[in-house]
Design brief:
Layout: E1 3-5, H1 24-29, H2 46-57, E2 62-67, H3 75-83, E3 88-93, H4 109-127, E4 130-133, H5 145-152, H6 154-168, E5 172-175, H7 186-201, H8 209-213, E6 223-227, E7 233-234, E8 237-240, E9 245-247, E10 250-252, E11 259-261, E12 268-270, E13 275-276, E14 281-282, H9 283-291, H10 295-298, E15 311-318, H11 349-369, H12 379-397, H13 406-426, E16 430-435, E17 457-458, E18 463-471, E19 478-486, E20 492-499, E21 504-505, E22 510-518, E23 530-531, E24 541-542, E25 558-565, E26 568-575, E27 577-582, E28 586-591, E29 593-594
Parallel strand pairs: 2-3, 2-5, 3-4, 5-6, 17-29
Antiparallel strand pairs: 1-20, 6-15, 7-8, 8-9, 10-11, 12-15, 13-14, 16-18, 18-22, 19-21, 19-25, 20-22, 23-24, 25-26, 27-28
Helix pairs in contact: 2-13, 3-4, 3-9, 4-9, 5-7, 6-7, 11-12, 12-13
Length: 614
C-alpha cells in the first residue's frame, strides 16, 4: 500500500480546457467542447506538433497580450506568433466576461463567468497560448473609463496586471486597446491603460511590493505595442458609440506622457492571412476556429474564407533601438537562445553564451534532421539538448550567486519543458489517464473496446480504480522509469499500484498502469479559488494568493509518467479524467473533481408572488 502526499502541483492551464463542475448548468451548457481536453488537437501532435515545438525551442521570444474580456483578443495575431514564429505567448483578460450575453443557456453573472473562462481556455488551445486573469468582474457595458476604474480600483487592477508581467516575464507587451474612445467602451479603455502602465511599473520593486515579498521578481519588458484601432477616424475625430458623442482623435501614451494626434500607424503588420501548409489553414482561419469555441457569445463560428489579411500594431515604447516600420514585434531584441546570457551578470555572460550555444546547436541539428515521415530522427539531438539543459540548470541553481541568475533559470526551465514535449512528440508518446469501472485488464478485443461511462465526481472516503495508458509510436526503445498519480498538496490520498507498467516501450508498444485510489474523508471539494459575496461586488476575493491570476485551482488528481531515452529523463502528464457518454458526441472526458456526498440546492432560487400570498 502506497500512501503519499503530493510533493508539488504545477498549475497547467492546458489541462483545464474541459468544463467546471460546481455549477452544473454552466457545465451542461458547454459540453460541446469538453472532450477537447482529453487529447491534444491533431495539429499539436506528431510531426505537425513537433515542428511547432522546434520553432519554440529555437527562440526565447515571449509575448503578453492584454484584453478586457474573453473574445476581445486578437486571436489571429496570437496564433501567428505562437504557431509560426514559436513565440511563448500569454493572454491576460481583466475579467471573465460575467456580464456578457449567453446564447447557450440561462446562466448569468458568475456562472457565466466560469463558462466563459472555460470557453477562453478552449479558444487558447487553438491560438497556442496560456491564459491569465485579473481579479475584477465584468459589471456590464461601461460608458467611460473613469466608471470602470472607480468600481475596480486603479491600484488593484495595476497590481493584477503587474503580477502577470512578473510571473510570465514577456519580452513584449501588446494590447488590443489603446485607452481611447476608439476602443468601444470603458472597460476596454482600462485594458489599454493597464498594459501601458504595467510596462513601466512591473520593473519597479516599490510597485506592488507584496508581490516581491512573496517571491516574484521585477521584470521590464523590452517593447510595448498597441493594435491599430478599427474605429474610423475622420475630421470630426472618433465617434464614441458608448456615449453617442464625437471625441478628439488624441491617443495618450501613458509611458512617456505624450499625446498622438490622429490615427496611430502600423509599425508592424502581422500576416495573419498567411497559409501554413502543415496546419492546412491560414492563421486567421485557425484562430477563428478558436474564437468559435466561445459559443455563449457567438453560437459557434464556421471556417472563414482564406484571404490575405494583416493585423497592424503601433510601437508605443521600446528599451531597445527600434526603427519605424520594424519587421516584427521582436525586431531589435536578441531572441536567440544564446541571448539568454544577457540576463546574467556581465562577467558571467561569455562563459554562459558558450554553454547556451551547445543547447542551440542541438536544436539546430534537430531542425536539420526533421522529417514529417520520420519525426523520430530528431530525437537524438533533442535528447542531447535536454541533457545539456538539465546540466546547465543544475550548475546554475547550485552556483553561489544563484539569486542573480534567476532570470536565466526561468528561461532554461521553459526550454526544459519544451525539450520534454518535443521528445514526446518525436517518439509518438501518448498518455491517457482516466477513472475506470474496475481495475482488471479487459478481455474485449481492442477493435471493439470503448470507454465505459464512469461517475463524474469523487466523494470523500470513496475508493475507485484509475487506468493510465501509455503508448509509443517510435521504433526506438524508451524506458518507463515510473508512472505516478499525484493527489493534492496538504491532503493524504491513498494510492495503491495494482498493476505496474512495462519497463520498456518500443515500436508501437503500449502498457497500462492500474491504480486504486481512496479519497481522504477530509478532502476539500473542488471549487473556484475566487468568489464574491454578491453581484454588487465588482471585484473577486481570492482565497489563495498563490493562485491569483490563474484560470482555476488545480484539479485533484494528476498522472505523470517519467520516461528515459538515451539516458535522459523526460515526462508526460495529464489530469485524470472521468467519462460521460453523450448522445451525438460519444465519450466526453472531464477532469475528475471532488464533491460532497450530499448537497442541496433550491430551484428556482427566485420566485415572484402576488402580494398577500406565501
Amino acid at each position: 500500500m502506497q500512501t503519499r502526499r503530493h510533493p508539488t502541483q504545477r498549475f497547467r492551464a492546458s489541462s483545464l480546457a474541459a468544463f467546471l463542475f460546481f455549477f452544473p448548468i454552466a457545465h451542461l451548457a458547454a459540453q460541446a467542447t469538453a472532450h477537447l481536453a482529453a487529447e491534444p488537437h491533431s495539429f499539436d501532435r506528431g510531426s505537425v506538433g513537433l515542428w511547432q515545438t522546434l520553432q519554440k525551442l529555437h527562440t526565447r521570444a515571449s509575448l503578453l497580450l492584454v484584453t478586457a474580456h474573453p473574445d476581445d483578443e486578437d486571436g489571429p495575431m496570437l496564433t501567428y506568433e505562437s504557431r509560426h514564429d514559436g513565440v511563448r505567448a500569454d493572454l491576460l483578460s481583466l475579467t471573465r466576461g460575467e456580464a456578457g450575453q449567453n446564447v447557450l443557456s440561462s446562466d448569468t453573472w458568475d456562472a457565466l463567468g466560469l463558462l466563459r473562462t472555460n470557453e477562453m481556455l478552449a479558444a487558447d488551445s487553438y491560438y497556442g497560448v496560456q491564459a491569465d486573469w485579473a481579479s475584477v468582474a465584468d459589471f456590464g457595458f461601461t460608458k467611460t473609463k473613469a466608471e470602470a476604474l472607480n468600481k475596480w480600483g486603479q491600484d488593484r487592477l495595476l497590481c493584477d496586471t503587474v503580477r502577470i508581467v512578473r510571473r510570465r516575464r514577456p519580452l513584449v507587451i501588446a494590447s488590443v486597446f489603446a485607452s481611447n474612445v476608439s476602443d468601444g467602451h470603458g472597460q476596454h479603455q482600462v485594458a489599454g491603460q493597464m498594459a501601458q502602465e504595467a510596462y513601466t511599473a512591473a520593473g519597479n520593486p516599490s510597485v506592488c511590493p507584496d508581490q516581491i515579498r512573496a517571491g516574484l521578481r521585477p521584470w521590464s519588458p523590452q517593447k510595448l505595442y498597441i493594435r491599430v484601432p478599427f474605429a474610423r477616424i475622420t475630421e470630426q475625430g472618433v465617434y464614441d458609440y458608448a456615449t453617442g458623442h464625437w471625441a478628439p482623435a488624441i491617443f495618450h501614451n501613458f509611458v512617456d506622457g505624450t499625446d498622438m494626434h490622429g490615427a496611430p500607424s502600423a509599425d508592424v503588420s502581422i500576416p495573419i492571412g498567411q497559409y501554413d501548409p502543415l496546419l492546412g489553414l491560414t492563421y486567421f482561419q485557425l484562430a477563428r476556429l478558436g474564437l468559435g469555441q466561445q459559443r455563449s457569445q457567438n453560437d459557434g463560428l464556421g471556417l472563414p474564407l482564406a484571404e490575405p489579411l494583416t493585423s497592424g500594431y503601433h510601437l508605443y515604447a521600446s528599451r531597445v533601438a527600434a526603427q519605424a516600420g520594424d519587421a516584427t514585434l521582436f525586431s531589435g531584441i536578441d531572441t536567440s537562445l544564446t541571448g539568454m546570457a544577457s540576463l546574467a551578470p556581465t562577467d558571467e555572460q561569455p562563459a554562459l553564451r558558450k554553454q547556451l550555444a551547445l543547447i542551440a546547436n542541438s536544436v539546430d541539428q534537430a531542425l536539420a534532421n526533421y522529417s514529417a515521415a520520420h519525426p523520430e530522427r530528431t530525437a537524438p539531438s533533442l535528447a542531447e539538448g535536454l541533457r545539456a539543459t538539465d546540466a546547465l540548470l543544475a550548475q546554475l541553481a547550485a552556483a553561489p550567486n544563484a539569486a542573480a541568475l534567476q532570470d536565466v533559470l526561468f528561461e532554461l526551465r521553459m526550454k526544459q519543458r519544451q525539450f520534454s514535449l518535443a521528445l514526446a512528440q518525436a517518439l509518438g508518446i501518448s498518455l491517457r489517464a482516466m477513472v475506470t469501472r474496475d481495475n482488471t485488464a479487459s478481455n474485449i478485443p481492442a477493435y471493439f473496446r470503448g470507454f465505459p461511462e464512469t461517475f463524474r465526481a469523487a466523494t470523500p472516503g470513496q475508493q475507485f480504480p484509475v487506468l493510465v495508458h501509455l503508448s509509443s509510436g517510435s521504433p526506438d526503445a524508451v524506458q518507463v522509469v515510473a508512472v505516478h498519480l499525484l493527489p493534492p498538496t496538504q491532503e493524504t490520498w491513498t494510492v495503491h499500484t495494482d498493476t505496474p507498467p512495462a519497463s520498456t516501450l518500443a515500436d508501437g508498444a503500449a502498457t497500462d498502469a492500474r491504480f486504486t485510489v481512496q479519497v481522504p474523508l477530509d478532502a476539500h471539494p473542488t471549487h473556484a479559488y475566487f468568489h464574491r459575496a454578491s453581484m454588487e461586488q465588482p471585484v473577486y476575493s481570492v482565497d489563495d494568493p498563490h493562485l491569483a491570476g490563474r484560470s482555476f485551482a488545480p484539479y485533484p488528481l494528476h498522472a505523470v509518467a517519467t520516461l528515459q531515452y538515451r539516458g535522459v529523463n523526460f515526462s508526460v502528464e495529464q489530469t485524470v479524467a472521468t467519462v460521460q457518454q453523450q448522445r451525438g458526441l460519444g465519450p466526453v472526458f472531464d477532469p475528475l473533481i471532488v464533491a460532497p456526498a450530499l448537497s442541496v440546492a433550491l430551484a428556482p432560487r427566485v420566485a415572484i408572488l402576488p402580494i398577500g400570498q406565501k
